[in-house]
Amino acid sequence: MNKKEQMAVQPTNEFVANMLRQRNKGTEDCITTSEYARKIGMNAPDLNRFLEDQNVMQRKNGLLQLTLKYQERGLTKNRSTFKYSRMGQLKEIVYPVWTPKGVAFLNKFLNVKQ
Question: pLDDT > 70: what percent of the chain?
Answer without folding.
Answer: 89
